[in-house]
Write the structure tokens for this entry.
Amino acid sequence: MTHPIHRNPITAVESPAVGVTIDGLTKNFGTFRALKNVSFSVEPGEIFVLMGPSGSGKSVLLKHIVGLEAATAGRVLINGQDATAEHTLERIRIALVFQAGALFNSLSVYDNLALYPREHRFGDESTIRDKVMRALQILSLENSAQKFPSELSGGMRKRVAIARALVMEPQLMLYDEPTSELDPVMSATISEIIATLKDEYHVTTIVVSHDRELALGIADRVGILMGGELVFLGPPANLRQPADPRIADFFHPRIDLKNPRFKNLET
Amino acid sequence: MKQLTHFLEGFGSAVQLLFQSARFAGTLPRQRARFIDQCYLIGYTTLPIVAILCFFMGSVLALQSGYSMENFGAKQFIGSLVGLSFARELGPVIVAILVAGRVGSAITAELASMKVYQEVDALVTMNIPPARILVLPRLAAVLVMMPVLAIIGNLIGWFGGAVICKYVESIAIEPEAYFSALRRYMKFKDVGTGLMKAEIFGFVVVLICCSIGLNTRGGPREIGASVTKAVVVSLISILVLDYFVTKALM
Amino acid sequence: MNTAQQTARVGLFFLLGLALTWVTWETLSDGKLFKQTGYSLIAGFDNLKELKQGDEVRMAGVKIGSVERTRLAGRRAEAVLRIDPGVKIASDATATIVMAGLIGTNYIGLDLGSPGSPVLSDGAELRTKITPDINAIMTELGSLGQKLEGALGSITNTVSGDGKNPGLFQKLDRLVTDNSAKIDTTMTNLASATDKINKSEGTLGKLLNDSKLHDELVATVSEIRGAATDAKSFVADAQILVNQVKSGKGTLGALIFDETAGNDLKVVTRNLRDISEKIAKGEGTLGKLLTDDSLYLSAQSTLKKADRAIDGLGDSGPITAVGAAANVLF
């Protein structure tokens, strides 16, 4: 397998794209089984969209990829290296866009973006400034550079979080619900950014979402998690006419009060 | 049994945090701005409350000892009593308690909220260890600031005693007599011991508060619980450590 | 607030802490850790008592240095004194260990010496004087009291009889009673009365001429006198102590709080009181017997003085004494 070349969106430095392999991943929180023997792989330079209802274990899976959670069983390999190993994060730049942004509330937008390059000594302050302003421009945030996260709306925070991820010049980019809280115009912009990053720079991307439009629009492949199990894995085209009734229900929910699902609501 | 496990877990994670931070000690010069920031918060902004409390503790100590020592005519030794007890015991303990209450709680609240709102996770994914930029500057700052706070607290406490001795009619000891009594039975070693105690207490308090803050799990409600826990554990640690440190330094 | 201002504040704050620590250090250790000033003298004693390192050296009450260290040197104890520079000490100045505090604080007191004598140089040895130990004085006084008691007892026996033999006064009494009628009725016959008295010369003469008894009596009296002198000198000493306390030398502080000394003092006081009471009871007998009335009176007044002095000590109480002592101490 040839690895497509990843080109950095800001510095245009080229490096090999990164592949992710998830192998028999199982995670228990106490007695609750969040992930049950999940296995799939994400090819280098691919956009993989992970879908599923709330509480199906999508975010937990994402945390395993960046090494924030340790697996109960199974493993996550990034370019063949264990994600929980300490040196993995040193060798491979992985950016995670958190659902709520996870911006540093004590720092201004500018400092939020500049933290990573400063801590990793990317260059002098003017080099860092150029990078940060470039990332802010991409997300139309240049007028908010001196604001603090508490002054921003939910959508703006998300854009700052994406900008912050861009400044990291990631080889692997993970999004947790990137389009929730965003208006349709901004959602479209985000979709465009994700697609551009992939097309132009070959950033391997994993998106966790339950936005069907996004998934069907940009995904190379889609995985669907339900109750901690991977119930679907394939190209988005296969989802037009899903065979599995659970998936069909997920994509085209019908409010049927006679459905056993709603039984507990009647008292 | 469960409590014991919790205690050991907490203790272990604090020690682990200490070693993690120590490993990054070399990055401190680069973190000068953060260090100064923490010094400002821990030292400078804590000074007013330290000053007020130490002044009144010194006064009350002088008043109480004046009242009780009058019975056997040892009023002249109030200076020595206030001086020694402040330098050796009260000064460091009061300053440490104030640091726990004012700085420690703020540290825990800040780190717990960072943890709950995933800022700490974000740092980890950015390959910036929280121990390096969140814990190390605070530990370094408290090490530098504690002795300063403690010596100022001591002097203000002594001064508070002197004011009471002069102006309370039933005691009526001139400041010269008070301070000469204070000097007569005290060596710098007593003050030095106190400063060392303050240093140890402050360091332990900040370490505990950082550790509890970073180990917060759950939602915003847990932030409050963590702060309470951090302050309680800090206070207990100060007083328990006080005994052992005092014995060791005697 | 901008960063520069914050940095400046933190810096100043830290410097303030350093400065205060340094000032405290200087004040509490007299800067000894930095420099050794002045010169040293050696004072040898049999017993340094409670003197310890860091205690003061005072000349005529003024602090002129401190005890640098204490050590044993052969059969004596030595205190090495560090004297402030510029203080000149005459070679005949005498050092004593003085108790100054309630809790066993001592200092070395130096007198001024004589003006013309040469000045001591570094490392020289000071003249020392053993200060009277108050405990020793008390013990001596106690035994003195017992001696007095014994002597007075034997006098009483001789004079009043010891039960078997009639005493001198019974005899005299009987003599006078037996002959009272005759004396009354033969007042006119003075010559014969004189004769009769002359005849009984044997009895009275026995008393008057019994040189052994007389000598014993005289010896006892002189012993009393000696004791009284001793007592007087102690009282004078005590007076000095009291004066010192009052004038603020604070010597007596320790005495007041030293329980054994206090108890000794009480015992002595009681003994002295007993003696004086006995003397008071025997006044008629002894006073009439002893032609030397003034001796008795002087003994009694001495004892009374001692009594008063000791009462005075009791009255002066800890607070005044300590107050006075502490005034000078601090």
